Amino acid sequence: MTTAQEADISGDELNKQRFQMLQDIAEELSGEVIFPTCFDVAARIRQALRDTDQPIRKIVEQISFEPLIGTKLMSLANSVAYNPSGNEVKDVKGAISRLGLETVRSTAMAITMQQMLRSRNMGGFEDMAKHLWDHSLQTASACYVIAKRLTRFNPDEAMMAGLVHDLGAFYMLYRATQYSALRARPDSMRHLVTQWHESIGLSVLSALGMPEEIIEAVRDHDVMRPIPPSPRSLNDVVYVGNLLVGGRQEWMHLEIDDAALESCTVGEPYLALQAEISAHTKEMSAVFG
């Protein structure tokens, strides 16, 4: 089908393909999920990292099969955030030792998500994909800083939760590329993603074998509720982190009155962390951008 023919697709056909996509996703998530090839990398590395008794040599061997991940790990380990003394690591083993296994998991997942969004098959959705990637990096940084400064939760675990909180949206965009009407009218996906990405994301995270605490941390992250004065759970960290870096924009696509939106405005002590969050995001963007 040519571009001109796709542009002529009727509204009925567009709605039909939107419904068909959701139906296909539901069917796929109820059985064996077929992820883009790049997700196999993250799954293998997560499996290798699950066994905490496994010698680091084995982990290094697994990561060595994926030069891009090894290179990114070294770059991150030598960044200002992880190397304030300026003592550079020169191999993957040194990078893993400095970063810790949780950060290695997050890095592998970040690269996987980035590779999927940069796929040549994302035609028509590049702008949405770029915005989604930037927001994910910002949320990951916000969650890391909030957890580090205001809680006793593991900041690296919080960063992972922030990174994958919108994974359902990534997956929906990837699946949307398989429908001609949706490719022709990418803006028609915005409302659909806003409505469905959270529930789809939970299923995708479960299929990927993510820890239950990460899944619970991202649950209902777009459900409007009062801002906690201080985070009481990892779920609170993700909720506030998402809002702090622009998550409220998703609500603009829904029928929510201004008073309700105003009640969810993030204030102190979170606003005091913005400079540190921006610096951390800049570090992450330098590695993954």
TrEMBL record:
Q: Which PROSITE patterns does the entry mention?
A: HDOD
Looking at the record, the residues that make up the HDOD domain are 35-224
- What name goes with this protein? HD-like signal output (HDOD) domain, no enzymatic activity
Annotated source species:
Formivibrio citricus
